[in-house]
Amino acid sequence: xxxxxxxxxxxxxxxxxxxxxxxxxxxxxxxxxxxxxxxxxxxxxxxxxxxxxxxxxxxxxxxxxxxxxxxxxxxxxxxxxxxxxxxxxxxxxxxxxxxxxxxxxxxxxxxxxxxxxxxxxxxxxxxxxxxxxxxxxxxxxxxxxxxxxxxxxxxxxxxxxxxxxxxxxxxxxxxxxxxxxxxxxxxxxxxxxxxxxxxxxxxxxxxxxxxxxxxxxxxxxxxxxxxxxxxxxxxxxxxxxxxxxxxxxxxxxxxxxxxxxxxxxxxxxxxxxxxxxxxxxxxxxxxxx
Amino acid sequence: xxxxxxxxxxxxxxxxxxxxxxxxxxxxxxxxxxxxxxxxxxxxxxxxxxxxxxxxxxxxxxxxxxxxxxxxxxxxxxxxxxxxxxxxxxxxxxxxxxxxxxxxxxxxxxxxxxxxxxxxxxxxxxxxxxxxxxxxxxxxxxxxxxxxxxxxxxxxxxxxxxxxxxxxxxxxxxxxxxxxxxxxxxxxxxxxxxxxxxxxxxxxxxxxxxxxxxxxxxxxxxxxxxxxxxxxxxxxxxxxxxxxxxxxxxxxxxxxxxxxxxxxxxxxxxxxxxxxxxxxxxxxxxxxxxxxxxxxxxxxx
Lengths: 289, 301
Hints:
Strand order of the largest sheet of chain B: 1-2
Radius of gyration of chain B: 25 Å
Order of helices and strands of chain A: HHHHHHHHHHHHHHH
Helix content of chain A: over 70%
Largest sheet of chain B: 2 strands, antiparallel
CATH superfamily of the largest domain in chain A: MetI-like
CATH class of the largest domain in chain A: Mainly Alpha
Shape of chain B: globular
Strand content of chain A: under 5%
Distance between the termini of chain A: 21 Å
Number of strands of chain A: 0
Shape of chain A: globular
Oligomer: heterodimer
Distance between the termini of chain B: 21 Å
CATH superfamily of the largest domain in chain B: MetI-like
């Protein structure tokens, strides 16, 4: 498209006009930001409120009387500590597994020449279009045939079959300068050593971004853990949280909000510290198409 | 494309046999772990789902399943519950996709401007991205229920048990949660647009609106198409929010296609029928993505 930019109507935009616009911009942005924060505030505030405040007629936004009662209650009456550990283990294993497996195939697809690799890459790209959800039933059947129900691998393997990571890494692996690899090969490095001593260290930054993304994704995943983990001692935080309400028999806003805080604070902290990497991971997805 | 590789290798076969063969072996070895995983948990299931969808699947004894041809698909066409679920899903898509796209675009363009507290704003708008659907669902359930903030300050009683308000409530929670991803993509895309284009336009006296229409939007076209398709596909597969917030109620008004699929499979154990629902959803998603692509990006090149 040609960018015909002539014929502007507002040649001399007046000062007040500019100022009004700036004010509107700030009001719009910070107003929206405030709206975005209300749910967080409500969640944290409620988790520290006494029972009387939680059950009062007016929903309070400020915990006038602070208590850690709900936290104590959850620790004493639920398996939330165990669920946190389970979630950590699941997310850790999945992240490691996905990084290794995806880096290996990305290396193979970009740096090695073998028959059929282009076809295979084409198929992987196409599989991007398959919504995971349509495989809900058959994957569950395969997992139960392989004895993976109530096993960590029942969640790890379906997550690792996602082509997203392969796709993200291929973009980076193909830009590795060939000379580096050739020099190492001349020095008698095996492919495995080239991969582990040259390619992986070089690709630290995209691998870290992918790893962070997979970690958060798995920590938060809902459908697979819901299907695969059928014992209360195996639940991850998202599943435990949802069953909490049913187990208590009644709705306890204090318990619900406190459990939501416990489930989200670890990731919110990770997010604050590693926001740059996470932004990079999201941007990597934006550039894939 | 595959042909060119092949001929390349053939020509150098005689003297390269060993190293080329080795490269083949290395190449396939490095590819195998992912390929096996994908075969077992992505491509295999896709084929099995198709197979199941043409059978009256016996969950307890799969071998005794009966081939029924297109019967499941025929049932589906005449199944009022499926149509209700599809209608609800379309309603959800209409309620969520435009606000997510327009909202994330406006916020991205705003944050990209010369404002104070850029980092703070970006952090706030991006943060819901790291929340699990369980937290989002429970948190907003508390906000929308009878004793929550919305009922008190805005009214409407308990939105989640209201036939008319339950879906909008789910949609609001979803917009809050899902805006983040698009926001980051569009912010990066806007930052990639060269400043020189705007400088030139300003010299020509172009208005802000014209610069938006003639520079910003065309320059951000590809990321915008990506975001539109991803948002459509994501919204069409909504599951967790209604599962947690309303369980599909009141009277099925928030039962979406995936929730219906889930219930058909794991509550009623109609695996064959659920597989058929999955395939129909798949076809719908492909059609939507293709339509979006055709209208938004198709006229170029």
